[in-house]
Amino acid sequence: MNRFIGFLRKEFYHIFRDKRSMLILFGMPIVQIMLFGYVISTDLKDIKMAVLDHSKDEYSAEIINKITSSGYFSLTDNLKSVKEADAVFKKGDVKLILVFEPDFGAKLIKNTRANIQILTDATDPNMANLEVNYLQGILQNYNVEINSDKKAPFSIQPKTRMYFNSNLESVFMFIPGIMATILMLVSAMMTSISIAREKELGTMEVLLVSPLNPLQIILGKVTPYLALSFINALVIIGMGYFIFGVPILGSFTLLMTETILFIFLALSIGIFISTISKNQQVAMMLSMFGLMLPTIILSGFIFPIRNMPLPLQIISDLIPPKWFIVILKNIMLKGVGIEYVWKETLILIAMTMGFIGLSLKKFKIRLE
Amino acid sequence: MIYKNMDASIQVNNLSKSYGNVQALKNINLDIKSGELFGLIGPDGAGKTTLFRLLATLLLPDEGSAKLCEIDNVSEYKKIRNFLGYMPGKFSLYQDLSVIENLRFFATVFNTRIEDNMDMIRDIWVQIEPFKNRLAGQLSGGMKQKLALCCALIHQPKILLLDEPTTGVDSVSRSEFWQMLKGLKERGVTIVVATPYMDEANLCDRVALIQDGEILQVNTPDEIVEQFGKKLYAVKSNDNYQTLLDLREFKSTNSVFLFGQSLHYTDTKNEASIDELKTYLANKGRSSTVVEKIKPSIEDCFMALSTKSKAHE
Questions:
Q1: From the CA of A2, how many Å to the nearest CA of chain B?
Q2: Residues in chain A within 8 Å Cβ distance of B3
Q3: H or E segment at B264?
Q4: Which of B25, B26, B35, B30 is closest to B5 using CA atoms?
Q5: Which CATH architecture has domain B229-295?
């Protein structure tokens, strides 16, 4: 036991004296949450819009007013002719042009039918789609509003409600993704680097010659990161909850248990990487390309898995964070219990066992 | 300790080790007695580090076996790791930990405390104690080695393996270091030291001369010198390098090497004719030639043995 505490003390000295690891440990989660929460937001806010109003009547004015007061769009230009549209888009600020046909109001009253054209800058197709959808939503609302006193004989009015994220906040999506990324980074990359460093600096040689057995060396190496990762997980969930209002609808205990399970998995991957890499550089490269990129790209964190080609979908099944993100979303946003995530949990447990087994087999009690 | 009264000897039998096509050690046989200060002398790449790693249970031999304290170092490596002190050639302590933190860490690794072993390390510890709160990475070369020795001794090992402990250390620290080893020897610790410095060989009880993975000779330093066999002469002139070339062409030259400020020369006859030598060199245009008979050193013996083994191949 004394040995273990001595080893832990040494590890914490290493971590706290190395500015780089301190930065990765504590700077990274906060910066990432801030980045994804505020900067890389896929929510619409103040999209610059121009209007080409051929009719200029009270109806068109009211509609423009409705749109700008929604907060999603802001009016920047009033165009005089459709010829200007090209130039405006090319300048790049304006993403959307709303065109009212001539005699818009009159047609609306007389024919109960008037046309609006929406032009969008589709260089970013996802954003363009999103803008059109939002705009249609606003127009739809207006439609309902002006018809509220009349009884249309037959009409279907779809009323949508977004389940589990009713305001379509993208930060709800990112918190689970960031959790998975950070825990992977801290647990797997940091442990693999710290074990590889002992090899590189030759201190592993001395540790091996000592009576410490492999399990004691590994436990001593891994425990500090288990603790620090857990703290990180709390920080991320806390920031999500208090700053961005990401709810935790399910059981907090279950959430933490799953988190610890995932940390174990990441640590075992880290140990595995360290057993196959000779120095810090190799360990870093392996964790970066073998773990970080797939975690960010293939886990469903940013890009939806169902849109990927089949081979990539199959690969994504092999990526541990994918399952963890599913579990997190289910527990945090849907509030479900273990009965809905047991399958994913079992997959994580199986993966952990697999990597621990591999590492024990690979860990060398000698130098070769 | 359980191992207090055990026979701390080392037996090496027909030990061989290759890395790919390179044979690092060829059929090594050594018999090191308990309590001996044993030197392993040889140039870089001779196989010293490989032999140390094999003895320290860090490598597996291809052939042969080694026993430390009469315990086999392959099948029972765990036992050996309890009473073995090992100091690798490369500085292998934690540079970001202070002196005292390093020492404390290695004490806990061996389940012991610094205070319990102060007796063993006191002589060395007093020298590094003034720097005990300095980070190990910021110590001078000599200090680092003293700290590493302290860490290797903290569990009172019966056998101490030191791989080039004095390489890159200034001469004052070197002699201090050897003084410490003498002190440890008096406590009955078996010490095996590798060194590329021939002058350190005289400080050992016995030495093994090793080259290209082969042991050339194992003997006491005095006997190695006695076995030199031929009379040795130091030759000096105004141009040592030209003299070296000239002597290589001299008809009765057995061997000639450049040794610092002079050339060491042996003749094919046991006794060389100094006059004949001088005349020959004068004819070659060398002036102010001095030839004197000297006592051979370990290095001379090493050179003689290594050329002999090369000629044999």
A1: 7
A2: none
A3: strand B262-267
A4: B35
A5: 2-Layer Sandwich (3.30)
Identify from A20, A198, A206, A279 which residue to disrupt to test chain B contact, counting B C-beta atoms within 10 A and taking the largest count: A206
Last residue in a domain, options A81, A113, A146: A146
Residues A29 and A173 placed together within one structural domain of the fold: yes
Q: Is residue A205 part of a domain?
A: yes
A307 in the same domain as A269? yes
Percentage of residues in chain B having pLDDT higher than 90? 40
Nearest to B93 by CA among B82, B81, B80, B109: B109
Residue A51: its H or E element: strand A47-53
Minimal CA separation from B97 to chain A, in Å: 7
Strand order in the sheet with A47-53: A73-79, A47-53, A96-100, A116-120
- Helices then strands, counting H and E runs in chain A, come out as 17, 4
**Minimum-distance CB partner of B58 among A201, A203, A367:** A367
Q: Which of A123-132, A346-355, B215-224 ranks highest by mean pLDDT?
A: A346-355
> In angstroms, rounded to a whole number, what is the distance separating the alpha carbons of residues B52 and B231?
35
B10-225: which CATH architecture?
3-Layer(aba) Sandwich (3.40)
pLDDT over 70 percentage in chain A: 93
Rounded Cα distance between B78 and A366, Å, is 11
Q: Residue A256: which domain range?
A: 7-40+169-362
CATH 3.30.70.100: which residues of chain B?
229-295
- Give the one of A210, A213, A366 whose C-beta lies nearest to B60's C-beta: A366
Is residue A82 located within the same domain as residue A200? no
- The ipTM estimated for the assembled molecules is 0.83
* Residue among A1, A205, A280, A368 with most chain B CBs within 10 A, to mutate: A205
Q: What is the mean pLDDT of each run of 10 residues along chain B (313 residues)?
A: 67 92 91 93 89 92 91 89 90 92 93 89 90 92 91 92 89 89 90 89 91 90 85 86 88 85 86 84 85 87 80 62
Residues in A whose CB is inside 8 Å of some CB of B read 2-3, 5-7, 9-10, 13-14, 17-18, 201-203, 205-213, 365-368
- Give the gap in angstroms from C-alpha A128 to the nearest C-alpha of chain B: 54
Residue A126 and residue A190 in one domain = no
Secondary structure of residue B291 in the 3-state scheme? strand
CA of B203 vs chain A CAs: smallest distance (Å)? 27
Q: Please count the structural domains in chain A.
A: 2
* Residue range(s) occupied by CATH 3.40.50.300 in chain B: 10-225
CB pairs under 8 A between A and B: 77
Q: Quick check: is A155 in a domain?
A: no
Residues A83 and A230 in one domain: no
A17 contact residues in B (CB cutoff 8 A): 96
Contacts of A5 in chain B (CB under 8 A): 108
Instruction: From A134, A143, A136, A141, select the one nearest A167 (Cα to Cα).
Output: A134
Residue A164 belongs to a domain: no
Residue B2 is predicted with a pLDDT of: 46
- Does pLDDT of A92 surpass 70? yes
Reduced to 3 states (helix: H, G, I; strand: E, B; else coil), residue B208 is: strand
Residues A175 and A300 in one domain: yes
CB contact under 8 A, B96 and A209: no
Residue A238 sits in the same domain as residue A128: no
